[in-house]
Design brief:
Family: Belongs to the cystatin family. Phytocystatin subfamily.
CATH architecture of the largest domain: Roll
Number of domains: 2
Helix content: 10-25%
Organism: Sesamum angolense
Shape: globular
Protein name: Cysteine proteinase inhibitor
Keywords: Protease inhibitor, Thiol protease inhibitor
Strand order of the largest sheet: 1-2-3-4-5
Distance between the termini: 40 Å
Order of helices and strands: EHEEEEEEE
InterPro entries: Cystatin, Cystatin_dom, Cystatin_sf
Length: 149
Protein backbone atom coordinates (compact mmCIF):
# COMPACT_ATOMS: atom_id res chain seq x y z
CA UNK A 1 0.00 0.00 0.00
CA UNK A 2 1.30 3.46 -0.90
CA UNK A 3 1.20 5.94 1.94
CA UNK A 4 0.27 9.54 1.11
CA UNK A 5 2.20 12.30 2.73
CA UNK A 6 2.83 15.95 3.21
CA UNK A 7 4.16 18.04 0.33
CA UNK A 8 7.96 18.00 0.07
CA UNK A 9 10.13 20.55 -1.77
CA UNK A 10 11.47 19.44 -5.16
CA UNK A 11 14.08 20.94 -7.44
CA UNK A 12 12.88 23.16 -10.28
CA UNK A 13 13.76 20.87 -13.18
CA UNK A 14 12.68 21.10 -16.83
CA UNK A 15 9.74 18.78 -15.92
CA UNK A 16 8.60 21.22 -13.20
CA UNK A 17 8.98 24.17 -15.59
CA UNK A 18 6.79 22.29 -18.10
CA UNK A 19 4.15 21.85 -15.36
CA UNK A 20 4.33 25.61 -14.71
CA UNK A 21 3.75 26.35 -18.40
CA UNK A 22 0.89 23.84 -18.42
CA UNK A 23 -0.70 25.57 -15.40
CA UNK A 24 -0.60 29.00 -17.07
CA UNK A 25 -1.88 27.62 -20.39
CA UNK A 26 -4.78 25.80 -18.70
CA UNK A 27 -5.65 28.88 -16.64
CA UNK A 28 -5.69 30.97 -19.82
CA UNK A 29 -8.05 28.48 -21.51
CA UNK A 30 -10.43 28.25 -18.54
CA UNK A 31 -10.51 31.95 -17.64
CA UNK A 32 -10.00 33.44 -21.14
CA UNK A 33 -6.93 35.34 -19.99
CA UNK A 34 -3.60 36.03 -21.68
CA UNK A 35 -1.04 35.40 -18.95
CA UNK A 36 2.50 34.80 -20.17
CA UNK A 37 4.51 32.22 -18.22
CA UNK A 38 7.79 33.60 -16.90
CA UNK A 39 9.31 31.36 -14.22
CA UNK A 40 8.71 28.70 -11.57
CA UNK A 41 10.09 30.05 -8.28
CA UNK A 42 9.50 26.96 -6.13
CA UNK A 43 7.78 23.58 -6.20
CA UNK A 44 6.54 20.93 -3.83
CA UNK A 45 5.29 17.43 -4.60
CA UNK A 46 2.71 15.48 -2.62
CA UNK A 47 2.11 11.77 -3.01
CA UNK A 48 -1.60 11.04 -3.47
CA UNK A 49 -3.14 8.64 -6.02
CA UNK A 50 -0.57 10.17 -8.36
CA UNK A 51 1.15 13.45 -7.49
CA UNK A 52 -0.03 16.93 -6.60
CA UNK A 53 2.53 19.55 -7.58
CA UNK A 54 2.27 22.84 -5.70
CA UNK A 55 4.00 25.53 -7.75
CA UNK A 56 4.83 29.14 -7.01
CA UNK A 57 5.24 30.74 -10.39
CA UNK A 58 5.55 34.11 -12.05
CA UNK A 59 3.42 35.17 -14.99
CA UNK A 60 2.84 38.48 -16.74
CA UNK A 61 -0.20 40.20 -18.14
CA UNK A 62 0.41 43.26 -20.30
CA UNK A 63 3.86 43.65 -18.78
CA UNK A 64 2.73 43.42 -15.14
CA UNK A 65 4.35 40.50 -13.34
CA UNK A 66 2.61 38.67 -10.50
CA UNK A 67 3.23 35.58 -8.40
CA UNK A 68 0.70 32.76 -8.48
CA UNK A 69 0.12 29.50 -6.67
CA UNK A 70 -0.91 26.63 -8.91
CA UNK A 71 -1.71 23.02 -8.11
CA UNK A 72 -1.33 20.45 -10.87
CA UNK A 73 -2.41 16.85 -10.37
CA UNK A 74 -0.54 14.22 -12.42
CA UNK A 75 -2.16 10.77 -12.64
CA UNK A 76 -0.12 7.58 -12.31
CA UNK A 77 -2.40 5.68 -14.63
CA UNK A 78 -2.01 7.70 -17.81
CA UNK A 79 0.23 10.61 -16.82
CA UNK A 80 -2.73 12.95 -17.44
CA UNK A 81 -2.39 16.45 -15.98
CA UNK A 82 -5.15 18.53 -14.41
CA UNK A 83 -4.96 22.09 -13.10
CA UNK A 84 -6.87 21.99 -9.81
CA UNK A 85 -6.04 25.45 -8.45
CA UNK A 86 -4.60 28.70 -9.75
CA UNK A 87 -4.60 31.91 -7.73
CA UNK A 88 -2.66 35.13 -7.42
CA UNK A 89 -0.70 35.43 -4.21
CA UNK A 90 1.02 38.78 -4.63
CA UNK A 91 2.51 41.06 -7.19
CA UNK A 92 6.20 40.82 -7.86
CA UNK A 93 8.09 44.07 -7.26
CA UNK A 94 6.39 46.72 -9.38
CA UNK A 95 3.24 44.60 -9.96
CA UNK A 96 -0.28 45.28 -8.71
CA UNK A 97 -3.49 43.37 -8.27
CA UNK A 98 -7.03 44.18 -7.15
CA UNK A 99 -8.25 43.39 -3.64
CA UNK A 100 -11.74 43.05 -2.24
CA UNK A 101 -12.63 45.51 0.51
CA UNK A 102 -15.66 44.97 2.72
CA UNK A 103 -16.96 47.59 5.13
CA UNK A 104 -16.19 46.90 8.79
CA UNK A 105 -14.82 48.67 11.81
CA UNK A 106 -11.33 49.76 10.82
CA UNK A 107 -8.49 49.87 13.32
CA UNK A 108 -5.80 50.29 10.72
CA UNK A 109 -4.53 48.86 7.49
CA UNK A 110 -2.59 45.77 6.49
CA UNK A 111 0.00 46.31 3.80
CA UNK A 112 1.20 43.27 1.87
CA UNK A 113 4.56 44.02 0.31
CA UNK A 114 6.71 42.10 -2.12
CA UNK A 115 10.24 43.37 -2.24
CA UNK A 116 13.66 42.51 -3.46
CA UNK A 117 16.53 42.87 -1.01
CA UNK A 118 20.13 41.77 -0.71
CA UNK A 119 21.14 39.35 2.02
CA UNK A 120 24.84 38.68 2.25
CA UNK A 121 25.37 39.87 -1.31
CA UNK A 122 22.59 37.69 -2.76
CA UNK A 123 19.31 39.21 -3.91
CA UNK A 124 16.08 37.56 -2.76
CA UNK A 125 12.36 38.26 -3.12
CA UNK A 126 10.56 38.62 0.22
CA UNK A 127 6.92 38.95 1.26
CA UNK A 128 6.14 41.23 4.19
CA UNK A 129 2.95 42.08 6.05
CA UNK A 130 2.89 45.40 7.92
CA UNK A 131 0.00 46.64 10.03
CA UNK A 132 -0.36 50.44 10.36
CA UNK A 133 -2.86 51.57 12.97
CA UNK A 134 -4.96 54.70 12.65
CA UNK A 135 -2.58 56.19 15.23
CA UNK A 136 0.27 55.58 12.74
CA UNK A 137 1.80 52.79 14.84
CA UNK A 138 3.56 50.27 12.63
CA UNK A 139 4.02 46.58 13.32
CA UNK A 140 5.77 43.98 11.16
CA UNK A 141 3.45 40.96 11.28
CA UNK A 142 5.27 38.72 8.84
CA UNK A 143 8.42 38.56 6.74
CA UNK A 144 9.19 35.50 4.62
CA UNK A 145 11.54 34.54 1.84
CA UNK A 146 9.61 33.92 -1.38
CA UNK A 147 12.51 32.99 -3.64
CA UNK A 148 16.10 33.81 -4.54
CA UNK A 149 16.60 36.04 -7.56
Amino acid sequence: MVKTGAPVPVEVTPEIIALGRFAVDEHNKKQHTCLEFKKVWSAERQLVNGYNYYLTLEAANEGKHNLYEATVYVSWENNAKELTEFKIIRPTPGGAYPIDVTPKEVEGFNYYLTLEAADGGKNNVYAAKVFVSLKDEKELEGFTLVAPV
